[in-house]
Amino acid sequence: MSNGVKAPPHSIEAEQAVIGALLRDNDAVDRIGDLRAEHFYLADHGIIFGELMRQIVAGKQCDVISVMVALSHKVQDAGKYLNSMQQATPSSANIARYAAIVRDKSVKRGLINLGRDIADSAANGPEESGAMIDQASSRLEQLAESRVKLEPVRAGADMAVHIGEIEARLQGGTKAISTGYPALDERLSGGIRRGELIVLAARPKMGKTALAMNVACNVARDHSVLYLSMEMPRSQLHDRNLANLGRIPLPHLLQPTKMTDQDWGNLTHATIKVDELNLFLDDQGSLRMLDVRMKAKAVKRRAGLDLLVVDYLQLMEGDGDNRNAQIEGITRGLKGLAKELDMGLVLLSQLNRKLEERPDKRPKPSDLRDSGSIEQDADAVVLLYRDEVYNPDSTEIGICEVDVPLCRQGAPGRVALSYIGEQTRFAPLDRSWMPRTQERPLERRRRGLAEAL
Q1: Alpha helices by DSSP H, 226-308
Q2: Which helix (H) or strand (E) segment is 307 a member of?
Q3: How many CB atoms lie within 10 A of CB 146?
Q4: Three-class SS of residue 197?
Q5: Is the N-terminal amide bond of 312 cis, ω within 30° of 0?
Q6: How far apart are CA 227 and CA 233, in angstroms?
C-alpha cells in the first residue's frame, strides 16, 4: 500500500470464488462448513454472501439476477460485479477450499485485533490482570472454535460400521469405563461411557465426594482421570485417598500420634498405589466453563483423558441473567465437552433441602437444585441415600443406597454399596441386598416391637 501500512490478512480472490461458485451451483452451500458473512474482509462481499444465504435457505433458486434485484440499492453496479465473479469461477468443485481460506484469514484478523485489545487493556485498562486474562481467554476460545458441518448419513449405509462396533463390544475392544463397583456398572449398562454426562447427587454427609473420589481412583488404575475439586483442597483429597487405599482411619491421618505400626505400613503401601494412578487433581475454586475446558484439554494433551469429575456444580460460575440460566449453560457446556473430548464426565450436584420435609427422605430427580436442565442434559442420574444419617437406630448402618432413576442406556433401579465412613471408602455389598420400601411411622413402631419380642 502507498502509505506503507500493511493490510490485514485477506484473500479477495477466495472471497470472489466462494460467491461465484454459489451463483453457479446453489447446492454447493453444503460444502462451505460454517462460513458466515462476517468472515468476509470486503463489506460488499459480506453483504452479497448474506443475501445469497438468505435466498438459498428460503429455498429460492438463487442467481445473478435475483441477487442483483435484492442488492441494487446496497451494492454499486451489483449486476456487473456479480456477473464478473460468476464468469471468473468455472465450477464449484473447489468451494470447500475457497471457504476454508476465507475463514482462516478471518481468524487471523481476529487474532490481530485480540492482540491489540489485550495490549491496550494491559496498558490503560482499570481491570485487574486476572479479569483481563479471563476475558482474553474467552475471546481466544471463541476464535479457536470451529464447528464442523456434518452431513446426515443414510441409516442403512452406516449399518455395516455399527455392526463392527457391536462385534468390538463383544470381543471387549470397546466398552464402558468400569466404576469399580459391578452392581453400579450393571445399572449404568456397563459403566461410564465416553461422551456421557453422569450426575451424582446427594444431600450433605451422604458421601458423594467420597464415592466420586473412589470411582476416580478405581478408573485411574487403567485410564486417565482429572478431578476438579472446588470444595476441598488437594491436601484433604490426599488424606481421603490414603485412607481409602490404605484402609487407614481418616482420624489417624489427621492426628498422626494415633497412627499404629500397621497404619504406618499401610500408609507406605497407599502412597505407592497413589503413585501408580494416572490421576490429576485440581482444587481451584469458582471455576467457569472456560476454566474447565482449558484444564481438561491440557490434561488431554499431556496424558490423554478418559474421565473428568467436577465437584461440584453449584460452586461453578456461569453466564446468564439468573442462576437457572447459568446452570443451564454450564450443564449444556459440560455435556458438549464430554462429547468433544470423547470422555466420560461425572458431575456432582447438591439436592434441594426441601426433601428434608418429606417423611421419605430418599431423593428423587426432581430434587436436583437450581434447574431442570440438570436432569435434562444428564445421560444418567445417580442419587445417594444413607438411612443412618436420618435414623440413628437404622437397621442399615454402613449401607449406602445408590439409586439410578434415570439412565438413557439402561433400566432404572437401586443397588447398595457398603460405606466404611472412617476410611471414606465404598465397597461392593452382598448382591442379596434388596431395597426396603418406606414404612409409615406406625408400621416402623410395630416392626420395632416385633423385633424386640
Answers
A1: 234-246, 250-254, 261-276, 289-303
A2: strand 307-311
A3: 11
A4: strand
A5: yes
A6: 12
Q: Cell for 429?
A: 455389598
User: What φ, ψ does residue 373 adopt, rounded to 5°?
Assistant: -65, -25
Strand 225-229 versus strand 307-311 pairing type = parallel
Strand partners, 385: 401
Q: Is 150 helix (H, G, I), strand (E, B) or coil?
A: coil
Write the CB contacts of 325 (distance below 8 Å, at least 6 apart in sequence): 318, 319
Residues in the chain: 453
Measured CA to CA, the distance from residue 417 to residue 366 in angstroms comes to 23
Which has the closest alpha carbon to 85: 175, 17, 186? 17
| Side-chain-side CA neighbours of residue 220 (13 Å) | 23
Is the separation of the CB atoms in 401 and 386 below 8 Å?
A: yes
Q: Residue 224: helix, strand or coil by DSSP?
A: coil
Q: What is the mean pLDDT of each run of 10 residues along the chain (453 residues)?
A: 73 93 88 87 91 84 88 80 88 90 91 90 82 75 58 68 71 76 88 91 90 94 92 88 90 88 90 90 85 85 91 82 81 88 92 84 81 78 90 86 86 88 86 59 48 46
C-alpha cell at 171: 470381543
DSSP state of 192: B
* 27 alpha carbon, distance to own chain's centre: 35
CA torsion sign for 184, 187, 193, 198 is negative
Pairwise CA distance, residues 57 & 250, whole Å: 63
Three-state secondary-structure class, residue 130? helix
Kindly report whether the global pTM for this prediction surpasses the value 0.70.
Answer: no
Task: For 193-222, give one letter per residue: b (16+ CB within 10 A) or e.
Answer: bbbbbbbbbbbeebbbbbbbbbbbbbbbee
Using CA atoms, how far apart are residues 96 and 306, in angstroms rounded to an integer? 33
